[in-house]
């Protein structure tokens, strides 16, 4: 593959394992964990099946993470998924994936998390009519500036935020031990079995809460210790996240009971209030805000690297390939934040439309993740001589399971989007991406990419 010559610097391995683990945890452990336990409890109707769903979610995520570990250690790159898709299917497919991430998936996630942050912080310091949007803009600008200062600075901030969120979630979990009896009694575990469709819906919520572990591939070229360090980064991250999620749900079920958890819009607040008093509502608000903040920062780190990889491969987007020394992809962050700020502006005026635009791009995300799973098997076939420091165990069983899960979530996302009459959002995003691809391809024909050997 031809690439642009980069005179503005390239990635260097200056990220420690601890910093990499906190980035992965920070992406995954967001505000969703405060909302989905109630949904999962309501859908399953049985606390045994509810906990089983969370454990199964961790297992499925670990299977996917092992697939990514092979790809990331075999083909380490700041491009992550984009790089894997490019090697397996060519630049056109990878371009469309990077397009979706740059225009909606990553930037939309950052914008929504920024709104979550703004909503909770506004409860403490209100800035007026558009307080949430103002806070959202401010936090995007502050964290963009932090990331522009370099990966070490961003990783240090990430480590601190992740530690605080982890501590807060543990406080919520431990607070259950101070409650004498749950607010409502729960029937024995597995006393009832939810329909297969409802269990599948519970898994959709669970896997959405586990979502983000795949972004670890974007830092594979910057982790100290080389490609072999990526396996412990991915495995340690998923083990910690799964243990935390299961413990958190056990605490909620133990302290509130199944029926109270299933009907609670703010289960964590109720649990802490029962043991520590009503002042705990402020604590939970601050914790949710920090969780959102952590996910924003981590998503910014990996999202900008996706933009960098795109600019490094396409002559028409070469401005995205600017790298400041060995620290950070400058233009990747600037473009990402510019689109995010535009989405925040749109969201402040048309809240429902903005939420639908972001939420209903899930079919695109899971569809491409399905292609990544297939890419692992395809690359084994077309590139058999590549050095693979780590190979997925029980091949090809685990990759096939991963692909089946991604296919199911793609199908479920399409059905849900269709039921909300919003499936056209994904189609429009990808249609514009196809037009952009044709335009850039045409421009490259008139301005050939300079190869690295020139």
From TrEMBL:
Q: List the Gene3D superfamilies.
A: Amino acid/polyamine transporter I
Residue ranges that the Swiss-Prot or TrEMBL entry lists as coiled coil: none
Q: Which InterPro entries match?
A: AA/rel_permease1 (IPR002293), AminoAcid_Transporter (IPR050598)
Query: Keywords, A to Z?
Result: Membrane, Transmembrane, Transmembrane helix
Compartment annotation: Membrane
Question: What's the domain of life for this entry?
Answer: Bacteria
Q: Where exactly are the transmembrane stretches of this chain?
A: 15-35, 47-69, 95-117, 129-148, 160-181, 193-213, 233-262, 282-302, 330-351, 363-380, 392-416, 422-440
What membrane topology was assigned to this protein in its record? Multi-pass membrane protein
Q: Which GO terms describe its molecular function?
A: L-amino acid transmembrane transporter activity
Q: Where does the record locate the signal sequence feature?
A: none
Q: Which Pfam families match?
A: AA_permease_2 (PF13520)
Task: Please indicate if the UniProt record lists Metal-binding as a keyword.
Answer: no
Name any GO cellular component annotation: membrane
Q: What name does UniProt use for this protein? A: Amino acid permease
Q: Which organism is it from?
A: Orrella marina
